[in-house]
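As described in the Methods, two query proteins were run sequentially through the folding procedure within a single session, without resetting any intermediate state between them. The first query and its resulting structure tokens are shown here.
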Amino acid sequence: MLTSLQNSLVKQLRRLHRAKDRREQQLFLLEGTHLLEEACAVQAPLEVVCYTEAWRSRHEALWLRLSEVAQRIELVSPDVLKAIATTVEPDGVVATAERIHTQSLHFAQLGLVLETIQDPGNLGTIIRTAAAAGADGLLVSDNSVDLDHPKVLRSSAGQWFRLPMAGSGDLKTDILKCKAEGMQVISTVPTASQTYWEVDFCLPSLILLGNEGAGLSQELNDLADQQVTIPLSPGVESLNVAISAALILYEVKRQRV
């Protein structure tokens, strides 16, 4: 059992709390039973798994699966587990996996493009909603919160493993590529004259959503075939970006059903 916070592995894992170290080590943290169940369900490769004796006694079957797929598995004390985890009250298991690298995604019918999303809870909720609504995947600008931020994974409620996604250093080029492949590009802006339910979403569609405060940049907005707004009652300035994404994604699903 690892009991010392000065252990080299413990120090390495604690550094993964920081984005800079996740990039340097090319690893990220998976925390909690549910996320690890989802990781096993999609056969995600795991590097290190740390668990407490109390957790193993409650999850013997999952422990056996993790023992088979992880490169290294370590029994740790509750204090060590708490130090490794980013949550206040971890449930007894933390693992690491290799980071997602930027990759080329193909959107056949429905894709999301997210520009400069800063709140990890918002990004995780959008991932969860996009998976539920049947999106092909999403692209996130490189200046957004990391896709593998611990709170992003927790907010996705396990759907993080089920939605293709990638970071992009050039959203404009990626959007133009989708347009060339026949997708209509829909931007969300508060000043648009057309509501989102007036769009024909039965066509292959790419939806653009912007930063929580500043919205979508003019450069990306200019690429849109149509601009849409979500009607708000008087005195209400805006909606949370994750709520906006959910409304539009489910309007797409409603029309297609």
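Immediately afterward, the second query was submitted; its sequence and tokens are:
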Amino acid sequence: MTIAAAPGGGGAGAGSATDGRPLRPGVDVSHRAILYLESINVSFDGFRALNDLSLTVDAGELRCVIGPNGAGKTTMMDVITGKTRPDSGTAFFGQTIDLTRLSEPQIAHAGIGRKFQKPTVFERHSVFQNLELARKCDKRVWPTLTARLDSSAGDRILTILDQIRLHERADHPAGLLSHGQKQWLEIGMLLMQEPELLLLDEPVAGMSDDETMRSAELFMALAGQYTLIVVEHDMDFVARIADTVTVLHEGHVLAEGSMHKIQQDERVIEVFLGR
């Protein structure tokens, strides 16, 4: 892990989230923010996907990111997770972890988890087994084959089953779950990795109204304990869960604030919400 100079700022005490929960060693949120993106530029064959993008997210926050297709939302998440290297700019996880110098596995190990739009679960395994397979441990072949589930790991699985509301389906094959339940299971699998920051890409796409409502309740319950960045097109869902909304357009931040403020912004109406 590469250590670099810390961005400036001021705020909460070192080494803990805003709710007082201790963070893993190396994730320094003493200045409150857990993610800093500053002047990020990314180009693909002459197309500017990110254009001087700057964004700060506080520890424990539930931030929603919206914008039209091609606004740079996916590229932004690719930069945060190490899939794409920026042409210029800085990206820090906490005060000291320079994301631009780490590989994708190193970033995941540092505490950033990402969920893509389409759920990926082991459909022939039970819900419980999916969570067991996802737990944070030595993933080499022999340790994996000889690993035994201890009581603390078992307790954590039970806790997460309650959080994602799949306790009654713990022994069911994951392939028999509804689309929404598979989405929740994959979120549970991310939680088994003990992340600090979760990136969720269109998590309620294709869900029923009831599943969408339950997802809103889940995300609001996770906020504070974890930091969530949710990229979503469902504006009703965003309005239900977000304290702060960031609008991307042509690779940079067009507007930021409460959903009410965003809905009144003429620039946002013009390029995204429509009249």
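Confidence is low (pLDDT under 50) at residues 1-23, 138-146. We note this only descriptively and draw no conclusion about the first query from it.
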